[in-house]
């Protein structure tokens, strides 16, 4: 054995460094949880950051623990309750520990023989979720690496099931151009999936939204009629549960009925908010999800898992076998009987991580209640923040939130300048200050600040402090402009 290989696989090194890393991460988690005064994201711009790591690579000295500390310092602090920007969950720490196990076991999961326990666990996790969503016993699906891959997987199945011929084998035939129908607010992965399938921009038929940014079900008939008049064959209707920008839930129940009446596949993008179905308090938002032909839910958003694990569920499980009806003789069994346990036949991935294991461990450790407690407290805080905003004369919520995504803007009384410029400027200053992380979005062409309340330790006091900061920054900008 060459000495370097001997060293790279030394179990004692692993034990020693592993213990130290767990200690380091424990202290990090403690400071985040105690809301230590610290920037919640690193101050560097991309070029400086790239320069730092380029130099670091050239530097001969290296000490693993100091590398870990530097990496933590230069990363976003998702576990800090004042990080409230994008839809990234602070993973439940033990799920990250389980992921360490997965990484080391590294059972690839393309076929059963490559990852026996993980394959079975994936099935158990999917059946658990399908049952919680109220889907029929025949439901089946796959875990995949992220919601974008999940949405593509579901829409590929929709295309195969609805377009009228075996498009997977035969390619595009002489039929009308295919399209999906989505709300104006759908995640961009929908448009991307349509383009990947070769349908271009016209393959996405947009249905207008109402003033709560939910798909306007009253406009469905007209949108479908217009699409047909333009020569399109609409194969699927997609519902948001919820939308990315404003967290609005589409009227899934009505949409499911419309899809059924018009022979459309009904897909629900529940990447962010599908987990509301697991609660008592907010499951009304997902009413109708159980009727969907396919559903996507990210465990790494509202279900406390580290990125990435996405469930793609099909009401008729047989559809999950048709999506990628491709032969790979060396890998996949041939013949009509398709085994559930060779997942490469049903996912984009060949090698796939042991995606279900961390979810399984959380279900066993904490039970369903964990997910419902988490979603309910995050959504409750969204409502509380909306109430707080509504009491301020110089703030304006964009809309009443359905869940934990809240959009608002600073709108000082008597100000008749450009609110978009003012709020974009405020956000830049919040980024420089780095005590909070918030993002911005556009709603009906207007710039709004946007928070996603993913951290169970964020409290209304933090949000109150955020408003104080925004007020101070906003007034400072106006004073400078008037000076
Ligand atoms: C509604 C919705 N769908 C899909 C996605 C894409 O999911 P992922 O980031 O896991 O690819 C997102 C991500 O923010 C989302 O909000």
From TrEMBL:
Its cofactor is pyridoxal 5'-phosphate. The modification N6-(pyridoxal phosphate)lysine is found at residue 301. It comes from the Bacteria. InterPro entries: Aromatic_deC, PyrdxlP-dep_de-COase, PyrdxlP-dep_Trfase, PyrdxlP-dep_Trfase_major. One of its GO terms (biological process) is carboxylic acid metabolic process. GO terms for molecular function: carboxy-lyase activity; pyridoxal phosphate binding. One of its GO terms (cellular component) is cytoplasm. Keywords: Decarboxylase, Lyase, Pyridoxal phosphate. Belongs to the group II decarboxylase family. This is Glutamate/tyrosine decarboxylase. It comes from Lentimicrobium saccharophilum.
């Amino acid at each position: 054995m060459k000495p370097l290989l001997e060293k790279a696989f030394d179990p004692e090194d692993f034990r020693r460094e592993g213990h130290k890393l767990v200690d380091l991460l424990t202290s990090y988690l403690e400071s985040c949880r105690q809301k230590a005064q610290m920037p919640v994201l690193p101050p560097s711009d991309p070029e400086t950051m790239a320069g730092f790591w380029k130099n670091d690579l050239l530097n001969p000295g290296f000490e693993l623990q100091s590398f870990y500390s530097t990496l933590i310092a230069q990363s976003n602090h998702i576990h800090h309750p004042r990080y409230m920007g994008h839809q990234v969950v602070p993973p439940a720490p033990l799920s990250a520990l389980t992921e360490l196990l997965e990484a080391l076991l590294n059972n690839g999961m393309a076929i059963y023989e490559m990852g026996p326990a993980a394959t079975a666990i994936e099935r158990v996790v999917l059946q658990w979720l399908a049952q919680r969503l109220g889907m029929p016993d025949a439901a089946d699906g796959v875990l995949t690496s992220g919601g974008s891959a999940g949405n593509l997987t579901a829409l590929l199945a929709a295309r195969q099931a609805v377009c009228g011929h075996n498009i997977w084998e035969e390619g595009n035939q002489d039929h009308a151009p295919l399209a999906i129908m989505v709300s104006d607010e759908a995640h961009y992965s929908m448009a991307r999936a349509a383009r990947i399938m070769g349908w271009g921009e016209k393959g996405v038929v947009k249905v207008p939204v109402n003033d709560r940014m939910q798909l306007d079900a009253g406009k469905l008939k007209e949108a479908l009629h217009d699409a047909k008049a333009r020569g399109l064959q609409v194969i699927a209707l997609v519902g948001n549960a919820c939308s990315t920008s404003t967290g609005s839930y589409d009227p899934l129940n009505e949409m499911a009925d419309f899809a059924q009446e018009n022979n459309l596949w009904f897909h629900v993008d529940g990447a962010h908010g599908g987990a509301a179905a697991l609660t008592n308090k907010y499951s009304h938002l997902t009413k109708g999800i159980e009727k969907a032909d396919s559903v996507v839910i990210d465990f790494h958003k509202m279900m406390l898992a580290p990125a990435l694990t996405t469930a793609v569920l099909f009401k008729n499980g047989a559809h999950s076998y048709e999506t990628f009806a491709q032969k790979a003789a060396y890998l996949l069994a041939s013949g009509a009987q398709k085994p559930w346990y060779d997942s490469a036949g049903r996912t984009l991935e060949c090698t796939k991580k042991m995606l279900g294991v961390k979810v399984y461990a959380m279900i066993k450790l904490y039970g369903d209640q964990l997910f419902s407690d988490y979603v309910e407290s995050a959504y409750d805080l969204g409502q509380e923040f909306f109430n707080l905003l509504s009491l301020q004369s110089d703030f304006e919520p964009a809309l009443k939130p359905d869940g934990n995504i809240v959009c608002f803007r600073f709108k000082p009384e008597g100000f008749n300048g450009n609110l978009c410029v003012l709020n974009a400027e405020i956000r830049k200053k919040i980024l420089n200050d780095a005590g909070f992380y918030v993002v911005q979005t556009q709603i009906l062409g207007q710039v709004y600040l946007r928070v996603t309340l993913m951290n169970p330790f964020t409290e209304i006091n933090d949000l109150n402090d955020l408003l104080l900061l925004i007020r101070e920054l906003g007034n400072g900008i106006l004073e400078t402009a008037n000076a």
